[in-house]
Write a structure and sequence with these properties.
The complex is a heterodimer of chains A (240) and B (53). Chain A is 73% helix and 0% strand. Chain A has 240 residues and is mostly helical. In chain A, helix 2 crosses helix 5 (148-162) and helix 4 runs antiparallel to helix 5 (148-162). Classes of the chains: A mainly alpha (240), B mainly alpha (53).
Chain lengths: 240, 53
Amino acid sequence: MKQFTNPKTIVKWAELLQPVAGLMAAILIMVGLYYALINSPADYQQGQAVRIMYIHVPFAWLATMVYGIMAVVSAVGLIWQHPLAHLACRSAAPLGAVFTALCLVTGSIWGQPMWGTWWVWDARLTSVLVLFFIYLGYLSLVRAFDNPLKGEKLAAILVLVGSVNLPIIKFSVDWWHSLHQPASVMRLGKPTIALPMLIPLLLMVVGYMSFFVYLWLMNFRAAVMERKNYLKEINRPQME
Amino acid sequence: MGNYFASFSDFITMTPYGAYIWSAYGIVMVVTLGLLVSSQIRLKRAIKKRGSP
């Protein structure tokens, strides 16, 4: 176990896995786009607007998935004080924030022709907006201290407290009356979505998940190097 | 245009939601490309700085 948690081994694995994730993302997103835009049927109720779902749903899942990953690595950082855990969290946060923003924007663009409004203060939409603000809060807090190690510890606590929002997002459509449709793929029993629509959706979901892994590993490698530079600088004797 | 569009113009207009669909895909493509480029620039900078004394 110790050899897998060795920082050098983790960075080496990140270097190895990054191009694999990038290649997977490029192939899956290209094929997914072909199916999403060209080779899938219009929905009997939504018409062609269903094609927005193929980019909205991947970002909705990624928004919560990235936050879940951040919560796990934050816990690892706080409990076991692994030197790379907070860097992994810090590297994922901007990506999660952008994915959440894309989820909100694409959902809003879909909502205007389907619901007749860009936005409603619905439980699902509002809880995802809260998630976006938690991401922004994390990014502000982690940069708020001269000593990044202190900022990362406090921001990790914020991530753990904020993780209470994840089940609220997931079950908001069941707990409250909502304009947002209930789960059609991630549910007990069979998915309710038709196969010709499920194929592009899953291709785009796995494609964008690979894209996230690719960017995350790249940011993580950069963060490790930046941290080494920072530690070297603060340990350097002052010349003046 | 596959089995689901009568013509290329039908594909472009996505009757009647073309503006919504293309703007959603356009925003996603621009933002994801931005993420890709900014992450690569950050990594290159970090590698360059590590090499400098």
